[in-house]
Every structure is written in structure tokens, then in C-alpha cells.
């Protein structure tokens, strides 16, 4: 159940980031698909990337995390968003991020929305 709540929270956060940051676009395929399924697919990829790739990157960048007092986490989150973009752009259901600084702004929005929604729904904690 926690995974499904985390997936919905990530979907909301990604959708808000796409609405608020001009360089982040969600590509919907031509046809009769709902935009909800596209955002849920992107959130699924983002959740899997955050579950498997992000801990390894955090471990490898531990000296930078300590040196910057955790602010390097924002860069790691931006890189995870760029990786999600790179993975999903090969499908019709993808997210495109124009550059690194766009990814930083998107990661900041996603992090804040995740923080707020996880505080509202405490069962989403890992």
C-alpha cells in the first residue's frame, strides 16, 4: 500500500513540476489515452529510479553530501529527474526536461511537494 501512495505522490509532484516549470513537458501519445496514465507511468519510472539508482549515487557522493551539508541532494534529485526523462523519452509516454537547471527547478518542486504530501499522508513513508 505504501508503494501505491508513494506512486500517487510522485505523480502529483511530477505533474505540478511540469505545470510550473516551462522546460518540463509531459508527452502524451496521439490517440484516446488519458493524461493520467501517462503521468502514472512517468511516476512509476521515477519511483523505480529513486528506489534503485538514487541510493547508490548517494553512497558514491557521500563526501560531497557531507561537505555541502546535504545540499548536493538537490543535484542528485535533478540527475534522477534527467535519468527518468532519458528513460521515458524512448516511449510515447515520456517526460522531457530541457536542461540541467530546468531539472534542478523541477527537482526542487518535486522535493517540496513530496515533503508536504508525505507529511499529510504519513503512511507513505518508507
Automatic annotation (TrEMBL):
Statement: the UniProt record of this protein carries the keyword ATP-binding: no
Organism superkingdom: Bacteria
UniProt KW keywords: Membrane, Transmembrane, Transmembrane helix
Transmembrane segments: 33-53, 65-87, 99-121
Name assigned to this protein: Putative membrane protein
Source organism: Rhodococcus tukisamuensis
Taxonomic path: Bacteria, Bacillati, Actinomycetota, Actinomycetes, Mycobacteriales
Amino acid at each position: 500500500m505504501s508503494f501505491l501512495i508513494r506512486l500517487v505522490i510522485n505523480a502529483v509532484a511530477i505533474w505540478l513540476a511540469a505545470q510550473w516549470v516551462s522546460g518540463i513537458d509531459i508527452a502524451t501519445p496521439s490517440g484516446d489515452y488519458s493524461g493520467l496514465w501517462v503521468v502514472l507511468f512517468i511516476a512509476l519510472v521515477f519511483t523505480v529510479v529513486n528506489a534503485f539508482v538514487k541510493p547508490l549515487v548517494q553512497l558514491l557522493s557521500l563526501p560531497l553530501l557531507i561537505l555541502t551539508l546535504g545540499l548536493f541532494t538537490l543535484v542528485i534529485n535533478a540527475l534522477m529527474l534527467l535519468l527518468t526523462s532519458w528513460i521515458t523519452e524512448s516511449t510515447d509516454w515520456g517526460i522531457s526536461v530541457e536542461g540541467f537547471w530546468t531539472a534542478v527547478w523541477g527537482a526542487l518542486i518535486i522535493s517540496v511537494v513530496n515533503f508536504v504530501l508525505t507529511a499529510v499522508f504519513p503512511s507513505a513513508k518508507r
